[in-house]
Amino acid sequence: MKIGLVCPYIYPDNGGVAQHVRFLYENLRLRGHDVRILTASHGPQRSSEGDIIRLGVGFSVPINASVGTLTFSPRYLGQIRRMLDHERFDLLHFHEPFVPFLSLFLLRESNSVNIATFHAYAGFSPSYEFGSRTLGGYAGRLHGRIAVSAAARHFIDRFFPGDYKVIPNGVDIARYAGAVPLARWQDGTPNVLFVGRHEPRKGLLDLLKAHRILRKTGSGSRLLVVGSGPQEREARRYVATRGLQGVEFLGRVSDAEKAQLFKTADVYASPATGGESFGIVLLESMAAGTPVVCSDIHGYKGVVRRDREGLLVPPREPRELARAIDRLLRDPALRERMSAAGQARAQDFSWPRVTARVEDYYGFAIRRLAAAGALPAGFSAAIPQAPPPLRARPSDGGPAAAAPSSVPAASDSASAMRHSQAE
Fold first, then answer.
1. What DSSP letter does each residue of 315-329 carry, written as one string?
2. Which of 11, 78, 309, 422 would bridge with 302, disulfide CB 3.0–4.6 Å?
3. How large is the C-alpha radius of gyration of the chain?
4. CA 26/CA 47 separation, integer angstroms
5. Hey, what domains does the chain have and what are their CATH numbers?
6. Smallest Cα–Cα separation from 5: which of 135, 16, 22, 14?
7. What does pLDDT average to in each consecutive run of 10 residues of the chain (423 residues)?
């Protein structure tokens, strides 16, 4: 098929959605599809870069306690119509389809099969509350809906009820498993790693408070802080005014160095306060074999299982965070056990496996439309074959029994989808 992946945020970028789109693009290409990435220019990028098609100009705006992108151009509709007429996509896959205005205009003008992935999670969103009253027509143009976690599904279903298939984010297993530790930080001092944007919801200040508690109780651990953001000055001030030792602010690093840092760390700490739909950094840590201490929040519990790949602690509780980190640092056997469990768990989230599930869902949505005689006029590819049903192993000498297909049947109800466990 010819597929367009719509990324309304800055691409390329280290943000979770952009990284998701990048790996999905690469793995769909490996599976034989013709794929383009549809995004906006943000700065000096050219309008066209190989398989990246840029439409309009993106502007950074605050959203969901973080920073998002709003895209616009005075000639937007004309640009979009000409591009769609030229590319003739069989399927458009929107990542956050209701982000203004790139996704919305593309969805309105699309003559293709429209699939959406919802990445966000928040307790309450005024923008979605407003959007639920004004964007019903756009939501009705979606032929399939994916959520990256049960938390993300629960969030979006509150505003746009429907059938959602949970397909998680993925991780580049080889990059993290094969990384070489950085000799600079291998001096016998235990390393605790933080990777994330310096903003309140990531909980960096709570981690600095936990590190201070550890130092006061005699721990000689070092805290490696990766990233930048609006809270960086406050974080540095906290360290300076308290004379806090053993904190290294590393700023933004390359993907290769980030993988090395995960491999270098003895513990990875993610003290997010909420608003996380999934937790890609947790997967990256697990793939590198680094045990995790993270907040006990909805988006994280579908990735790290309590006391198996890591320790979960209440958010905004620096003392509990310090206690969990200290427990791991003092127990090499526990770290080794959680390291092995994390590496095994990460295999379930490898990008080839995740992409295969996305591709299966494309096929399910297309077959459902075909059966109803509702395929959009722009779809010209062959209708994907249904995957063969799984077979259970023979039991007690009897014949193999058919197991349910890994693709949901067309009769799946919204209730069943909403109450199924996150995969």
1. TT-HHHHHHHHHHHH
2. 422
3. 23
4. 20
5. 1-170+350-423 (3.40.50.2000), 174-348 (3.40.50.2000)
6. 22
7. 92 80 97 95 67 80 54 76 96 92 92 95 63 84 96 92 96 97 96 96 97 95 96 98 97 95 98 89 97 94 94 98 98 98 97 98 98 96 88 46 37 37 36
Cβ atoms of 263 and 290 within 8 Å: the answer is: yes
Cβ burial of 185 (10 Å; 0-12, 13-18, 19+) is middle
DSSP string, 164-187: -EE----B-HHHHHTPPPPGGG-S
Between the alpha carbon of residue 182 and those of residues 177, 189, 191, 228, 280, the distances in Å are 14, 13, 11, 21, 22
Contact 361, 146 (CB under 8 A): yes
CB distance 418 to 157 below 8 Å: yes
* pLDDT on residue 59: 62
Residue 350 is classified by DSSP as: B
pLDDT at position 61: 58
Angular region, 340: left φ>0, alpha ψ -120 to 50, beta rest: alpha
